[in-house]
Structures are given as structure tokens and as C-alpha cells.
Amino acid sequence: MARVIVDVMLKPEILDPQGQAIVGACGRLGFPGVTQVRQGKRFVVEIDGEADDAKLAEVRKLAETLLANPVIEDFELHAE
To answer: What are phi and psi of 31, to 5 degrees?
Structure first.
């Protein structure tokens, strides 16, 4: 069994209100050096067999159709 990590982040040009709220809280909580935060999602997908090119292509299609909104989000795959 293999694991594929799918990290999903908002595209840089998309406003991230949750990230902005975290930056605001950082100063109040004693972390004044934090100037930007972008929030995202991480999915751990377990697949049968090895994470070969065909299996990674399947997980990429899964990410494109279900895990990420390609209009506003980018994603990366990392096989473990």
C-alpha cells in the first residue's frame, strides 16, 4: 500500500480571509514577525500497490475533480 499526499492551496491571486485573520491574531498573541499566512488543505490518500505513474495519474484526476477547485486552488502530489 502506498500513500499519496495532496496539498491544496488557494491560488496566490485569491483573497485568503482565514489567513488574514490568523495574521491579525499573531500580533495580538505575541508573534509580531508574521506578515502573511495562507491556509490550505492536506489529504492523505492510501492506494493499493505502488505509487507508479498510472496510480499517481489516478490520484491527480481525483484531486482535479473532487479534492480541489481548479478555478481558485492549486494542488501538489507527494508520494510516500
So the answer is: -120, 70
Q: Tell me the three state secondary structure of residue 72.
A: coil
Give residue limits of the domains in the chain: 2-79
> According to CATH, what is the number of the domain 2-79?
3.30.1280.10
Asked if residues 19 and 38 have their Cβ atoms less than 8 Å apart, the reply is: yes
Tell me what pLDDT residue 58 has.
96
Q: Please give the Cα distance from 80 to 77 (Å, whole number).
A: 10
Round to whole Å and give the CA distance between 36 and 26.
Answer: 10
Query: Is pTM, for the whole model, over 0.90?
Result: no
Digit-coded pLDDT (tens) for 14-44: 999 999 999 999 999 999 999 999 999 999 9
